[in-house]
Amino acid sequence: MRLGAVPTGEGDFELTVWAPKARTLDVLAADAAYPLAPSEAGIFNGRFPGGEYLLALDGAETRPDPCSRHQPYGIRGASATVDPREFEWHDGGWGGVTLEELVVYELHVGTFTAEGTFAAAAGRLPALAALGVTAVELMPVATFPGERGWGYDGVYTYAPHPAYGGPGGFAQLVDAAHAAGLGVILDVVYNHVGPGNEALTAFAPYFSSRHQTFWGDAIDYSQHWVREWAVQNAEQWIRDYHVDGLRLDAVHAIFDDSPTHICKELKQRVGDALVISEMEIDDWKPIDEWGHDAQWADRSHHELHVLLTGEREGYYASFGSVRGLADDLLGRGHDPRRLVVCAQNHDQVGNRAVGDRLPPDALRVAAAVTLFSGCTPLLFMGEECLTQRPFQFFTDHIDPEIANATREGRKREFEAFESFAAEVPDPQALETFLRSKLDGCEPDPLYRELVALHRELPRRLEIVEADETAKRLHLRRGETDLIADFRAKQVEIRR
After folding, report:
1. What is the CATH number of the domain that holds 32?
2. What is the pLDDT of residues 409-423, one digit of tens each?
3. How far apart are CA 155 and CA 278, in angstroms?
């Protein structure tokens, strides 16, 4: 039984809603009411013609569908039905992308182009393919409060964000990626729901009182239909939008004591689609226990960052070892292909006080090490051009209290950091968002060379030398050597 509004093939839609808090549930659509029939476990089900609609709980309070496929007017507006059979696809010959060939390019749709839309992003995809990238990883596109934000505060997880171009625009972006020879990995968030989660709790107990996350209420995966809410969402992206894989955000904040962890069940249900997790450093559950294809490996980023900048505040305090970096690149007992490594990503840039990036000389060294490694490399949008445009933390919360709390919380977060003495940008300000938009740029020749080497050379990496005193790392793949001098911020490739 699929949650949300699903086309029947007979000109109407079947709607299934989990709403154990309601005695009655009616669909309000096209100036008419369509009662849904209650059944076991708080499920309501019935048919209606489709189009824009709201749900009336007990004949009074009206809310959007918790599994809405489209929110054309934002999180407080009516839901709208989507028939994925109406999407136009031209990717019948697309064979997918494998972990073996993966070179990932992470981007944020709203700042990747001046327009900030799916359509505008599609226009830049051929250039990424020419660089040697094999898949784009999109930061979350589920509908969140306001028009601009990172996407991790999504409320309607099934509905592509209307400001980006909505469901049709997202399908066209995926189709364009496949036409360019690129896979699509979508960042999804199943550890919390953004501000406005009362839109879900009005229907059912989605959240746990036993756990909390840094970002809000933890999701209660002891509930069968909460599990279905998450897993069916994952299935939707792959089935209806032809997405090739999912990146699961912060799985260490997904709490589940069930015999089969929800993250394991999700991978089982999506089958051959790639599943890549973000997990705390040195916790290998995603690849060791849950069957995920890969996981982010932030330890190598932290080692590189300290070696190249000397920063040791906060979570950087215990890093900066050449030998430790070498061990990371060898996989620490795991197949290195299953570890995603980077010189930059949205967190490691955007979670800095002013969203500043590595200087070009340091970035070239960090990129060389990660791309030359046998791990799966990830580039963050713009780094291939050595851009110094910041990627800052920006929001557009529509609740004034949430907006102010976000401003104040951001200031408090950096009070103890001497190196972040500059004024923290107001996340709610339009200018903060606009500063984060990329300019058009030409990739640095070193990136082209390194991406080509990553794909051409034998995957096996040798650590020839890890010199802690000189702060030098000498790597070899096949007959090619890379020497990284962290002190001088120089890199040499010998063939």
Report:
1. 2.60.40.10
2. 888 878 766 655 568
3. 20
